[in-house]
Amino acid sequence: MKSLMKSKGFTLIEMLISLIILSLALLALAGLMVATTKNNSFGGRITEAATFAQDKLEEFRVIPWDTILSGYDIKTGSHNMDYQRTWTVTPNLEDSLKTISISINWLDKKPHTIQLLSVVNKSD
């Protein structure tokens, strides 16, 4: 009987305190997961916007030189996100170069913009 009374173990209070500490730690991790998911999603949208800008620059490399003009269009990306793509073409002092500025705008709870700047050579 004395050996039962001297048995070592956790009391109910100790168990409740450890469960509270574990719950707080898991709650903090849940908040971290939400922030990580948001940042990952935003990074994917920036990558998609940069890809659309690069696609337009590649298109300018294969079309005739005289048809490289300013303009805009709307591209739909993954998850039905619309990206407005605007490009401004500025001839340089020499006839063999054109400066191209491409802006990609999209709305994801707030407006975002990235811009690429490039120079296209007539001989390309």
Explained architecture:
The protein is of the alpha+beta class. It has a single domain, classed as 2-Layer Sandwich (Pantoate--beta-alanine Ligase, Chain: A,domain 2), CATH 3.30.1300. Strands 1-2-3-4 form a 4-stranded antiparallel beta sheet, with helices on one face. It starts with a helix and ends with a strand.
Summarize the structure.
The protein has 124 residues and is of the alpha+beta class. It has helices spanning 2-5, 12-62; strands at 71-76, 82-91, 97-108, 110-121. It has a single domain, classed as Pantoate--beta-alanine Ligase, Chain: A,domain 2, CATH 3.30.1300.
Strand residue content: 25-35%
What would you say the CATH architecture is? 2-Layer Sandwich
Largest sheet, in brief, is: 4 strands, antiparallel
Q: Please give the oligomerization state of what you see.
A: single chain
Quick one: overall form? rod-shaped
The whole-angstrom Rg is 29 Å
Give me the secondary-structure topology.
Elements: H1 2-5, H2 12-62, E1 71-76, E2 82-91, E3 97-108, E4 110-121
Antiparallel strand pairs: 1-2, 2-3, 3-4
Key terms:
124 residues; alpha+beta; Pantoate--beta-alanine Ligase, Chain: A,domain 2; 44% helix; 32% strand; rod-shaped
